[in-house]
Amino acid sequence: MSHQKNCTNQKMFIGEFYVAIINKSEHMKKIFLSLVIVLIATSAFSQLNNSWIDYSKTYYKFKLANDTLCRISQPTLAAAGLSSTQAQHFQLWRNGKEVRLYTSVATGLLGASDYIEFWGQMNDGIPDKELYRNADYQLGEKYSLETDTAVYFLTVNTTSANLRYTQSPNIITGNTLPAEAYFMRKIEQNYNNLINGGYAAVIGEYVYSSAYDMGEGWSSNGVAPGSPLSKVFTNINKYTAGPPNSVTVTIAASGNALNARDLIVKFSNNDTILRTPMPFFNYRKDTIRNIALSRLTSPSALAVSVANSSVIGGDGMTVSNFSVTYPATFNFNNEKNFYFELPPSAVGNYVVINNFNNNGVQPILYDYTSGKRYLGDISTAGQVKFVLPAATEPIRKFNLISQDVSNMHTIASLTSKTFINYAAAANQGDYLIISHPALYNNGSGVNNVDLYKQYRSSATGGGFNAKIYDINELTDQFAFGIKKHPAAVRDFIRFANQQYTVKPKYIFIIGRGTAYANYTPNQSNPAADQINLVPSFGWPASDILLVAEPGSNIPIFPVGRLGAVNGTEVGIYLNKIKEYELNLASPQQTLNDKSWMKNVLLAAGPATEDERAEFISYLTLYENLFKDTLFGGSTQTIIKSSVVAIEQQQNQQIEQAMNNGLGYVKYFGHSSANDLAVNLNFPENYTNAGKYPFFHVVVVLLVIFRF
C-alpha cells in the first residue's frame, strides 16, 4: 500500500494499529507492541523540561541562530512594557538554563542608552541527549537534530539574585607579572554533512531502530577505504617551546556497515596517532593524551586525516568530530570572537593578545568561570592586554569578544508569552488530544479538532474529560521552544503521568508527522512544516516511543494518530468515527446488519518462497482463532504469489471483500516506510460506507528494538 494511500486511510478505515517485529538476528529480540492494551511503565518522578518555568510570570520570547554578542536596548524593553523594570531584576533562560547577563547599569532603571548584554548561542545537540537509548550513543553535541535556532525567554525575577557578569577592573599600569607565553588551544572539526542512521540490522537491507541509537546523528560523509577524511588547520600558532608531551587528540566516529575495520587517525606526513578496532556498527569516542609536541611538525599548519582500514571496498564509516589541543601563542588570527582557557594561578596572569580584530574598540572579556567582565587594554597597537587576578579553579574559561558594531546582534523585538499551567485542575484531562492550530479551521471557520473533543466528551463518544493541547505551547514548555523536538510531546506525557489526578486513558495526536531525518534537512521548504505538524520520535518515526519513558519502549498510555494535514480531513475522520461507533452501539443484531463484522481478510507479503511458507503458517493460526466458536468468523486469505515488491493481482479480490464489508483486516509481511507488499486501493474508491475494518499490521523488519 503506498504511503499516500496509507496517509488517507482515516477517510475509510477505522481502527488502531499494531506493530510487531520479527527478529532474524541474534542481536535482537522479537517483541510485540500494542496500541490497544494499556501498558504502564513505572518510574520514579524525574525533573522535566518545564521545571524552569514560573507560571505566575510573563516571559518575553525571541530567537537566535548564531553564536554572537547580543544586546537588548532599553527602547526594545520599553516597547515590550518593561521600562519600569530595574536592571537587577531581569532574568534570561535558554534551553532550561539561566543565562548570565551584563546590564549597562548594575541596579535601578535603565536609561534610554542602556542595554542588557549576553553571549548568545545557537541551538545545539545537548537537548537531544535524553532522546538516545543510551546518552553515550550521541557522538556530538555541536549541532541539533532539529534546528539551529534557539529560543530565549526573558522574564522579571525580584525574589532572588539573578546571574550577572560583574564589571571588573583591568589595571595594566604597575603590572609586574611576566606575559604568559602560551595557552592550551583546542582546534576542532564538527561535521553536519548528513544525518547518519547509526546502528542497523543488516538482513537483506539496512533496518534501523526508532530509538536514537549508537552513532546516530550529524556526521561527515561516508569514509570509504582508501579515501580518508582530511582537514587542514591553518594559523595554528604552535608554541614550539611548550611542554614536550602536551598534545591531546579526541575523535568520535561510527561504523556504517557489517564489516571489520580499524579507525585510523593521522597527522601530517603519515604520522599515525591512533589505530583502533571499530568493527561493524560500533562507535569510538577516544581521547589520546601525552602526544609529543614535536609531532606537530609545522608551527603554522596541521593536517589531520581519519581513515578506514577495511579491505571491503564498499565498507563505510562516518566521523562526528575530532579535536587537537596543544600549546599555542596568544595570536588570535584577526578573529572577532575567541574562546580560550587558562590553568589556575596563585599570582594571577598577564595576558598579551596579538592580532585580535577589535576595530579600535575595547573588546570584552567574559570570564565564564568567575562571572567577571573585563574591558581589554588596547593602548598598544595590535595588542589587547589583561591583568587577571589569582584563581584556584582547575580550568578558567574565557571568551574575548569584539565590541565592533558589525560583531553585535541587536534583539529588535520581544514577544510576550504566558505559559499555561497544565497542572491546574481545569487543564487536566483523561483523553488528551495533541494537535496544531493549522487544523483548527477547515477553511469555513469550523474547528473540527474542537468538535472531535466535544464528541469524545459526550456520552456517545465515551464520556471522557477530553482536552486539546496545542503542540506550539507544548514545544515552548517541554522542548525549550526548539521546533519539532520530540521532547515537546514526550515530556508532556511524562508530566501528565506524574501530575494529573486522574491518569489519562488515551493520547490522540491529530496532525501529520514526519521523521526528523526527513524533516530537518528540508526545513527551509515551507511544505516541510505543513506535513510535520506534530513531530514523531526517531527515524523511522515511532509514536509509541513518543509516549514512553526515556530508555523504554513501553508506552505509558495508549497512543494513536490521525495524519491529517488540514481541518477538512479532521472533519472527514470525525464523521467516519461517529458513523462507525454508532454502528457498533446499534441495538440491531441481525445478520443483515452485523454479519459483515465477522468477515476477516488475512493477507501476507513474503519476499521469498521460504517466507511464504512461514507466513502462511502464522496466518493459519490466526485463521483458526477467527473461525473458532468464540468468534465464529468467516475468513479470506491472500498471499503474495511472487517476489515482486508489491503484488497487484489480488486487487479485485480485496476490493470486493472491502465493499462487502470487513470487520478485521490483518496484514503480515514486509513493508517500507511507503509501501506494503500487498496492494490496496485508495480508500475513497471503496463502496463500504459504514463498514470500516479494524486494520492490524504486523510488519516484518520495520522497526528493530535492541536490548
What key phrases describe this protein's structure?
707 residues, alpha+beta, Jelly Rolls
Note down, in words, how this protein is organized:
- By secondary structure, the protein is of the alpha+beta class.
- The chain has twelve helices and 38 strands.
- It has a five-stranded antiparallel β-sheet with strand order 6-5-9-3-30, with no helix packed on it. A five-stranded mixed β-sheet has the order 10-26-25-28-23, with no helix packed on it.
- α3 (448-457) runs parallel beside α9 (567-585).
Summarize the structure.
The protein is α+β, with helices and mostly antiparallel strands. The protein contains twelve helices and 38 strands. Helix 3 packs parallel to helix 9 (567-585) and helix 4 crosses helix 5.
Q: Strand pairing plus helix content: what structural class?
A: alpha+beta
CATH top level of the largest domain is Alpha Beta
- What is the CATH homologous superfamily assignment of the largest domain? Gingipain r, domain 1
Distance between the termini: 31 Å
**Strand arrangement across the biggest beta sheet:** 6-5-9-3-30
Helical residue percent band: 10-25%
- The total count of helices amounts to 12
CATH architecture of the largest domain: 3-Layer(aba) Sandwich
Query: Could you name the ranges where pLDDT drops below 50 across 5 or more consecutive residues?
Result: 1-44, 701-707
